[in-house]
């Protein structure tokens, strides 16, 4: 196999490879127009809504494997005393954020787009 064949094979492999979701750290646009900065902190996931300074995932969203993070979270549009069972899923274009209250009976989600 010559160098040109090796380069062509490598290029085909890269093009054919499935898209892999990036890690969660980054800056995201929320559907309501606000911006959130997501970081890993102490092994957990933390987010701060830039416009309000509200810390979102400070109660233990931990890695759950397969690009998912799970734990308790607070939503920036809800009163501070309310927490939800949260799931954050990394996608190639951003994050899917889902929170459920009262067990799994009342759930809502939104998709954040990576900036």
Gross morphology: globular
Order of helices and strands: HEEEEEEEEE
Category from helices, strands and their pairing: mainly beta
Major pleated sheet: 9 strands, antiparallel
Q: What would the average pLDDT be, to the nearest integer?
A: 77
Number of strands: 9
Q: How many whole angstroms does the radius of gyration measure? A: 18 Å
Strand residue content: over 45%
Strand order of the largest sheet: 4-3-2-1-9-8-7-6-5
| Unreliable residue stretches | 1-20
Cα-to-Cα separation, first versus last residue: 42 Å
Helix percent reads: 10-25%
Number of helices in the DSSP assignment: 1
List keywords for this structure.
115 residues; disordered N terminus; 9-stranded antiparallel beta sheet
Give your account of this protein's structure.
This protein has 115 residues and is mainly beta. Helix content is 12%, strand content 47%. The chain contains 1 helix and 9 strands. It has a 9-stranded antiparallel β-sheet, with no helix packed on it. A hairpin with a 2-residue loop joins strand 7 (84-91) and strand 8. The longest helix has 14 residues, at 3-16. It is globular. 19% of the residues are buried. The model is unreliable at 1-20 (pLDDT under 50).
How would you summarize the topology of this molecule?
Layout: H1 3-16, E1 26-29, E2 35-41, E3 44-49, E4 54-55, E5 62-65, E6 68-73, E7 84-91, E8 94-101, E9 106-114
Antiparallel strand pairs: 1-2, 1-9, 2-3, 3-4, 5-6, 6-7, 7-8, 8-9
How would you briefly describe this protein structure?
With 115 residues, this protein is mostly beta strands.
